Amino acid sequence: MNTPFLWGSATAAYQCEGAWNQGGKGNTQWDNFSHNSPLNIHHVTADTASDFYHRYEEDIRLLKESNQNSFRMSISWARILPEGTGTVNSEGIAFYHRVFDCLNQYNIKANVTLFHYDMPMALEAQGGWENEKTAYAFAEYARLCFQEFGDKVDLWVTVNEPVYNLMCCYGVGNYPPHVTDTKRFALAGYHYMLASALAVKEFRKLQLKGKIGIVHDIHPVYGVNDSKECQFAVRMADNVLNNWVLEPAVNGCFPQDFMTELEMHFPLDFVKKQNDMIFKEGTVDFLGINYYTRAFVKPYTDGETCFNENNSGVRQEDGHIVSKKLMNVKGMFERVEDPDGTFSDWDMEIYPEGLYDSLLLIKDRYHNIPVYITENGIGLHERVINGEINDTERIDFLQMHISAMQKAMMQGANVKGYYVWSTFDLYSWVNGYDKRYGLVYVDFSDEKLTRIPKKSFYWYKNLIQSYRMEGNHEE
Ligand code: BG6
Is 17 considered catalytic here? Predict the structure, then answer.
């Protein structure tokens, strides 16, 4: 019997659970940020968020109603280990058992991420990912989750998006701990990948039924032209945006040309020879790919390294796209906007071909390892009109990307599942609640947090139904 293709949608604990101080959960760096930091520009918290903690049964019932057979979620580390290590919170363990049991009852496969940005404050206070000890604390937490939930979970993900997360934390500086320092970025990145490899090693020891992977926010890189200088810029951008995650995760070592290039800028004294074997033994079974957009680059011209966020809804000139630097990596490349590109409300280039190209690249470069599209979606400003949310823009976006995925599958790409980001509206990190991604609308202005399925919810339900009716249903 073949495993059925997984059609699902995704969430993350901090963005949806709420109950920030209930059920014995410890504090995280995001609780600390949203409560205390002047950089919380929208003055919102995720204290209640979508209240998944109390409403998970309703949300899982809606998943079933829309024919989805998988749900991507994450576990809150601080709900399991309030201090990051040591004392286990039995209420937290019990909560996730209830969620997994509910999913199993509806025959929905759990795809579970262990780290999706929220870290126990006690660990963050000791340096977070800059401290090697955090990688070992993560392995302890991962082992505990495997032992507790291993018979209920089919797909495990070690960490979500090392590149995007750390770029925001240590490059742009808009996520806690709000640092802009390339060496500290590299240091945290090395430990994030070490943590992932250590968790995979723990998983292998237990010989569980599931599979384990990592989730990467892939950005296929395109040059503004084909010159020699531009080819170098493309390769370096590919290293910065993709390869330092994909290479160790799949092949067990970092790209040599990138390490050499980095060493010209600062000493890599945190890279330890004795960890090489951990990376070799900690490779994944599958890749989770979050695809939102591509990277368009040109050769480096001038200026210091700096990272800017796109995806924030802030444009330089209203209505007119100006070519601007999104990222400058000294001596390597500059990331720019394509003046002919199509952009979302929130300043993200819409480029479905990038998903097709990424999937074929993975097929060729990484011996066709199984892939799940673990996130794909578009953030929109939305309003309820006559009780409905007519999100045709989202439907068009998803349709274009699903077609690109299916085209790649026809060319042999080994795609096993697809997840819309997000299952329902949730906290969009520094963008707060204005940016909605859900298939289900959540009325944040109302205490009841009423759920209203959007037009895209019904569209997705029909798409899955037709896919199965076409004989693709092997359950
Ligand atoms: C991914 C993350 O980077 O993109 C999600 O895994 C995130 O957690 C999503 O919410 C969309 O990004 P944003 O910043 O628009 O919410």
Answer: no
